[in-house]
Amino acid sequence: MDTFESLGLSKALLRAVEDEGYTTPTPVQAQAIPPLLDGKDVLGVAQTGTGKTAAFALPVLQIVSRGRPQGKRHIRALVLSPTRELAAQIDERFSAYSEHLDIRHKVIFGGVKQNPQVRALQKGLDILVATPGRLLDLIGQGFIDLGRVEFFVLDEADQMLDMGFIRDIRKILALMPRQRQNLLFSATFSDEIRELSKSVLTNATE
Ligand code: AMP
After folding, report:
1. pTM, entire model
2. What is the spatial distance between Cα 15 and Cα 33, in angstroms, rounded to a whole number?
3. Nearest 5°: phi and psi at 182?
């Protein structure tokens, strides 16, 4: 049986996982974490409740803390989520898993004042969790630069399509470097998702 140690996670992350009381990786974690730590793209069919957040948050944290450049932080990982509730939950998981790391992350979503979000962006972040509308809004105002994103996560891709976010996703894709690592999670797998995954992923493991 897989253990968190056998997946290749760093000591700081193993401690965080232990603090959370997790003893064994869930199937989606056992399948996604090793290829992600290896730099590969992953296409995952996973529903909420399967442990999918840790399946991407742990590798993202490990990769981002590995080569953190000197000087002001810039956004190196972007996690896109369809709703503010999901985005907030993901951000809360990043807080838990980054307990023993020097990583700054923030969630931004619409329906609330933008000033606190802008202030956090101006201080510098390593990881940004966002819903598409507010993200594009703040990009348009010049507060966010995605030009140095190394890791892109598209969570709940089917819900993104259902909510009509496809054009926003395409705009966001065009603002990131082509050379980057990608992860796409979807609860269902349709022709539309397959099509979307072609424009997001380059060398995927399913
Ligand atoms: P998610 O599917 O990411 O929304 O996670 C569902 C719940 O499972 C969350 O409350 C996580 O904290 C929890 N969880 C994630 N991974 C594990 C694990 N390996 N063992 C036990 N609980 C976990």
Report:
1. 0.96
2. 16
3. -135, 150
